[in-house]
Design brief:
single chain; mainly alpha; two-stranded antiparallel ribbon; 5 helices; 2 strands; 53% helix
Length: 123
């Protein structure tokens, strides 16, 4: 289907994505489940490329870090639960920015233990 201008092409694909949003979400969700090894490799490569040097840690890098931490230990390190897992910084990322994306500075915890840890003063 030839387009006369880039604007026509852009408008067409924007409308197409709107109409097929739900199908695309299902497709990408299934793809992520079936290709978890590819995602983890790309996230790990992304973490290796990052150099903080006083820069802010962005959400994408923290998500990649969290996935790597949860893959390293796929259960809560406090109660051994496997439900609602989160990654926890051992040394807080605000104080120790240089360790914010270090895989060894993370532990896997369930949501309840993570909240308890922070309430008890564990950063």
């Amino acid at each position: 289907m030839p387009f006369k201008t880039k604007e026509e092409q852009s408008a067409y694909y924007k409308e197409w994505r709107k109409l097929n949003k739900e199908k695309l979400q299902v497709y990408y969700k299934e793809w992520k489940i079936n290709n978890k090894d590819k995602i983890n490799k790309s996230q790990y490569k992304y973490l290796l490329k990052l150099k903080l040097d006083g820069k802010r840690v962005n959400g994408r890098s923290l998500n990649a870090w969290a996935e790597q931490v949860k893959d390293k230990t796929p259960f809560c390190e406090w109660c051994y639960s496997e439900d609602s897992l989160e990654a926890h910084h051992i040394m807080p990322k605000i104080k120790f920015k240089q360790y914010a994306l270090d895989i060894n500075n993370g532990r896997t915890m369930c949501k309840d233990c993570h909240i308890t840890c922070h309430k008890q003063g564990g950063y």
